[in-house]
Structures are given as structure tokens and as C-alpha cells.
């Protein structure tokens, strides 16, 4: 059994313990997965600039959001999918708040775009979210692939395991989803 398989099994056992009422199981799950979650959060923070969350605060915020739905997680992959969604919504709420602050005059810049007319990373995040919602309405699996890869930092193999499909299917789904999002977003600096 590989190290990753051992970690997956360990988290699945801890999830079963949490479901059985072990009060310390969630703390052990958090401790076991914190480094992975922090790595994902670092990528998100780099993507949206240093004014958004710190990686540590993003992990904490996402974990708190996850508290209600984490009980439904049956394995590590499912928990990772739930965390990806929690990070997505934490980032979106932060983006909305910052943009509302700009519109309210509390930010000297006061505009959604910089002087060159380029949309800010936070504005691009909101546009991506809207495009992702449209994609999910058309094909839910494509939407989940984007959410797991883009917001959850999952690789193709992990997404394939989570969806019980072949890696080639995930690659094909990613290409279709990415093409759709790029068409929806038009000219953007957002790396998809």
C-alpha cells in the first residue's frame, strides 16, 4: 500500500470514528490533513493576491464552513471535495466583501478595474464563479471537475477516483470545461 493509500485509509477510519461519536476524531482529521489543505490554500491566495486571506485563515474559514457538511463525508476524497467547495465560497464571500467596500467608498481606488481597465483578480474570481455556475447547470460533473481541480487542488487521478471514472475521462472533462469557461470569460488574465 502506498503512502497516499495509507493516508486515505487512515482518514476514512477517522471519519468512521467521527460518525460513531468519537469527539476527538475531527481534530485528528484536521491535524492529519492540515498540510494538504494549507498547500491548496497557498495556491488560492497566490492566485488572488496578498490582500485576500492568508493561507492559514483560508484553511480555518473553510474548515469552519465545512463543519456542518463534513459529517456527511464518507472518505478522504469526499472530504476534499467538500473542502474545495468551502474554499470556493470563502474566497467568493471575501471577494464580494472587498468589492462592496470599494463601491462603498471605503477604498481609495473605488473601482472594480484598475487604471488600465483590467479586471482585478477578485472581480475575475466572481466572473469565474458565475461561469462555473452556468457550466454546472449544463453538466454537473464538468462543474465538479473544475471545482476539485481549480479550488481543491486535486489532480486528475484523485478526481477520477472520486468520480469513479477513468483518468482519460477526467482529462476530456477538463478540456471541455476549460474551453467552456474560457469562452464565457472572454479576454481574461485568469489562469484556468
From TrEMBL:
Residue stretches making up the RNA polymerase sigma-70 ECF-like HTH domain? 9-185
**Family to which this protein belongs:** Belongs to the sigma-70 factor family. ECF subfamily.
TM stretches of this protein? none
User: What is an example of a GO molecular function annotated in this UniProt entry?
Assistant: sigma factor activity
What Gene3D superfamilies does the entry give? 1.10.1740.10, Winged helix-like DNA-binding domain superfamily/Winged helix DNA-binding domain (1.10.10.10)
One GO biological-process annotation of the entry reads: DNA-templated transcription initiation
Q: Which PANTHER family match?
A: RNA POLYMERASE ECF-TYPE SIGMA FACTO (PTHR43133), SIMILAR TO RNA POLYMERASE SIGMA-E FACTOR (PTHR43133:SF39)
Keyword Transcription annotated: yes
Checking InterPro entries in the record gives: HTH_Sigma70_ECF-like, RNA_pol_sigma-70-like, RNA_pol_sigma70_ECF-like, RNA_pol_sigma_r2, RNA_pol_sigma_r3/r4-like, WH-like_DNA-bd_sf
Which keywords does UniProt give here?
Sigma factor, Transcription, Transcription regulation
Q: Does the keyword Transcription apply?
A: yes
Q: Indicate what this protein is called per its UniProt record.
A: RNA polymerase sigma-70 ECF-like HTH domain-containing protein
Q: Which organism is it from?
A: Dokdonella koreensis DS-123
Amino acid at each position: 500500500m502506498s503512502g497516499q493509500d495509507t493516508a486515505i485509509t487512515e482518514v476514512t477510519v477517522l471519519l468512521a470514528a467521527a460518525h460513531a461519536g468519537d469527539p476527538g476524531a475531527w481534530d485528528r482529521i484536521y491535524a492529519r490533513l492540515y498540510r494538504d489543505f494549507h498547500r491548496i490554500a497557498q495556491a488560492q491566495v497566490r492566485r488572488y493576491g496578498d490582500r485576500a486571506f492568508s493561507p492559514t485563515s483560508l484553511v480555518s474559514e473553510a474548515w469552519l464552513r465545512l463543519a456542518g457538511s463534513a459529517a456527511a463525508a464518507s472518505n478522504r476524497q469526499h472530504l476534499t471535495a467538500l473542502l474545495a467547495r468551502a474554499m470556493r465560497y470563502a474566497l467568493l464571500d471575501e471577494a464580494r466583501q472587498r468589492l462592496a467596500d470599494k463601491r462603498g467608498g471605503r477604498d481609495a481606488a473605488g473601482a472594480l478595474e484598475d487604471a488600465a481597465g483590467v479586471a482585478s483578480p477578485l472581480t475575475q474570481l466572481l466572473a469565474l464563479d458565475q461561469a462555473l455556475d452556468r457550466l454546472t447547470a449544463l453538466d454537473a460533473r464538468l462543474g465538479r471537475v473544475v471545482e476539485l481541480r481549480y479550488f481543491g487542488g486535486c489532480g486528475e487521478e484523485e478526481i477520477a477516483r472520486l468520480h469513479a471514472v477513468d483518468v482519460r475521462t477526467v482529462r476530456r472533462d477538463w478540456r471541455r470545461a476549460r474551453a467552456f469557461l474560457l469562452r464565457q470569460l472572454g479576454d481574461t488574465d485568469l489562469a484556468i
